[in-house]
Specification:
The complex is a heterodimer.
Chain A: H1 3-20, H2 25-34, H3 60-63, E1 91-98, E2 103-108, E3 114-118, E4 124-130, E5 133-140, E6 148-152, E7 155-159, E8 164-167, E9 181-184, E10 199-200, E11 206-210, E12 225-229, E13 237-241, E14 249-251, E15 258-262, E16 274-280, E17 285-286, E18 292-293, E19 297-298, E20 316-320, E21 324-329, E22 343-347, E23 360-366, E24 372-379, E25 383-384, E26 387-388, E27 392-397, E28 403-407, E29 412-418
Parallel strand pairs in A: 13-17
Antiparallel strand pairs in A: 1-29, 2-3, 3-4, 4-5, 6-7, 7-8, 8-9, 10-11, 11-12, 12-13, 14-15, 15-16, 16-20, 18-19, 21-22, 22-23, 23-24, 25-26, 27-28, 28-29
Chain B: H1 3-16, H2 28-39, H3 58-69, H4 76-82, H5 87-97, H6 112-124, H7 127-131, H8 149-160, H9 170-175, H10 180-191
Classes of the chains: A mainly beta, B mainly alpha.
């Protein structure tokens, strides 16, 4: 390759990187505020020379990095990490239920049943509370990556890798639940970013993401998007594009807009791109991937011929490789008033980074106009000596305003409450 | 693929002893004997289509045994063998098998051209980013170095076509751009890795 082009590319990119750290305050605050201990000793910089697509060859540090898969078996109840977790004063955490391998998406039924999806397993579990104790019941099995769950008016919706099904009147008799009926299967079968988070919006439509089928690839028109369908599976409409892999979204209770987490690409560098928190303000918006990440970083391979200004920028950057997954707005009244209508985001934590980042719950406080005002870490302690002792996936709020949190590393669901000190563990 | 031979072996293994039916006081070594009858008691499989298990990390073995028990990875004999395994059985078998010695480095240098092509593919597709520069794997990532060539090629094909569902989607993702000819070169190279 022409050396002058290479040099120009690297200068361009270096300029971009420098610019990143001078972005709006809300953008800049996340990494230092959230992980002072995890900051690498060296100044954040890309390797010299050409911008790298994929892992730099012959780099011993990069060679140490690989995706971290959760153990297939759930941890025993007495080995769960609740005592090691840190919460703000006044909050308590307890084990709600354990022994649910690879517990992922959470949904709560009208009668209080907690439904749990899984990515590596093939079952959907219902947690039932009886005489003060919880019991796990398998309500559907033989499914393929049933990660996504949604619930409305007695019906549970289950998203497998490439189809969505429903179980009506699911809570009527949890010992004898009907088999799921498929309502929508016009979905690709790609494994990469194929597992799904789903949710039902205020418009009573079911929202389904289709991830980009690979780390850094040009997605076909069927991928890299969020769709919505009617609850009977009809009327598909693409409502957002340029979405690399979202595994969590919810609607702002004030402005009814859809907010979603999106995970940026790997192997560009340790510190960029950061993952995104996005907001859909009009149908069909494009959020940048694979051309532009984090609103201001053109992809070294696919960014040519494009400007980041063509795309809708994120409303917050959620940290490098931090893997923000499930998110919910807090509409309960148990937590202190400052949390009202704030976003709780579960950051699963990085693998593509020497010093792991994330593995926590972070709260985003919003301005009246729906933009992000500030953020603070809500639960930390899942990351110890650069190793996970648990990994948060999804948050969901109970009727009493307390929070449930799933941990796919340990196969457990925790409950976080404020005030009444039910347990001493904190 | 030599299905008849595979089936005969499968039947033989079932007859030999059922690892899936623990008897009282039976040691893990005794229970694992039928496994090693096919997979090789020195960590090296002498049987086409059956992988060597030597040097596999315990977390990888645990995941595979779990997938077999749950029928998420379908190989009839393995699903049958593991169907009554408890969680502790899964842990004990993976810990036991993880102690088998790794297959020795290949004595066959291979055709230089094919080896060069295979090595270049390893770099291009970043296989060594997860499997390690020595292709020995770690944690949930299997050792592939010196695995049986036909098994490697089959595994790559199955991942590419999504007929072998991985625990996560990493291998499905990694194999998408790899052609059939490249799979052959990769398997050739990895089997002769040294």
């Amino acid at each position: 390759m022409n050396p002058s082009i290479t040099a120009r590319r690297s200068i361009l990119l270096a300029g971009t990187i420098a610019g990143l750290f001078m972005a709006a305050p809300v953008f800049a605050q996340t990494p230092p505020a959230a992980a002072p201990a995890a900051a690498p000793a060296a100044a954040p910089a890309l390797p010299p020379g050409s911008p790298l697509i994929g892992r730099p060859e012959g780099n011993a540090d990069a060679a140490k990095l690989a995706p971290v898969a959760a153990p297939p078996l759930a941890a025993a109840a007495d080995k769960l990490p609740t005592a090691a977790l840190k919460l703000p004063p006044g909050f308590n955490i307890e084990v709600y239920s354990s022994g649910i391998p690879n517990a992922r998406s959470l949904r709560i039924g009208d009668k209080g049943t907690v439904f749990v999806g899984t990515r590596f397993g093939n079952k959907v579990t219902a947690i039932v509370k009886k005489d003060g104790k919880t019991e796990n019941k398998t309500i559907a099995e033989g499914l393929y990556r049933p990660n996504g769950l949604a619930y409305r008016n007695g019906t549970l919706y289950i998203a497998e890798l490439s189809q969505v099904s429903k179980i009506e009147n699911v809570e009527d008799n949890l010992d004898k639940v009907n088999k799921p009926t498929v309502i929508y299967s016009d979905l690709p079968k790609d494994e990469a970013h194929g597992w799904k988070f789903i949710a039902i919006g205020p418009d009573n439509k079911l929202y389904i993401p289709v991830g980009q089928p690979g780390n850094n690839v040009m997605p076909p028109p069927t991928h890299g998007q969020i769709r919505r369908i009617n609850l009977d599976g009809t009327g598909m409409e693409v409502i957002a594009r340029g979405v690399r892999n979202t595994v969590g979204f919810d609607w702002n209770p004030v402005n009814k807009q859809l907010y979603f987490s999106d995970n940026g690409r790997d192997w560009m560098s340790e510190d960029v791109p950061q993952d995104e928190l996005n907001r859909v303000t009009k149908v069909g918006e494009h959020f940048g991937s694979p051309y532009c990440y984090q609103g201001n970083l053109p992809d070294p391979e696919f960014g040519w011929g494009h400007k980041c200004s063509e795309f809708t920028p994120p409303i917050a950057l959620t940290g490098p490789h931090s893997a923000g997954l499930g998110l919910r707005f807090y509409t309960g009244s148990q937590f202190p008033a400052k949390y009202k209508n704030a976003i709780f985001l579960a950051r699963h934590g990085s693998w593509n980074r020497t010093n792991k980042f994330g593995g926590d719950i972070i709260v985003y406080f919003l301005n009246k106009d729906g933009s992000v005002k500030s953020s603070e870490v809500f639960i930390s302690g899942f990351l110890v000596d650069n190793k996970y002792i648990g990994r948060p996936v999804d948050v969901e709020f109970m009727k009493d305003g307390s929070m449930l949190l799933s941990d796919d590393w340990n196969g457990a669901v925790y409950r976080i409450s404020y005030g009444k000190a039910r347990t001493a563990s904190r | 693929m030599s299905t008849p031979r595979f089936m005969r072996l499968a039947a033989a293994a079932v007859l030999l002893c059922a690892a899936s039916q623990p008897l009282l006081a039976e040691t893990i070594a005794e229970r694992a004997a039928p496994c090693l009858a096919c997979h090789g008691d020195k960590g090296v499989s002498e049987t086409p289509d059956i992988p060597s298990l030597g040097g596999q990390p315990a977390p990888y073995l645990l995941i595979q045994l779990y997938l077999f028990r749950e029928k998420q990875r379908t190989v009839d004999i393995m699903n049958e063998m593991t169907k009554s395994f408890t969680d502790d059985d899964l842990r004990n078998f993976s810990d036991f098998i993880a102690k088998l010695p790794a297959p020795p480095p290949s004595t066959d240098a291979g055709e230089p051209e094919r080896m060069a092509r295979g090595g270049a593919l390893i770099t291009a597709h970043r296989c060594n980013s997860c499997h390690g520069l020595d292709l020995a794997g770690r944690e949930n990532i299997p050792r592939v170095a010196n695995q049986r060539e036909e098994y490697l090629a089959r595994a790559l094909r199955e991942y590419k076509s999504n007929t072998r569902h991985g625990y996560d989607g990493v291998m499905a993702e990694a194999t998408q751009p790899i052609t059939e000819a490249q799979i052959a070169d990769l398997a050739y190279y990895i089997a002769r890795f040294r």
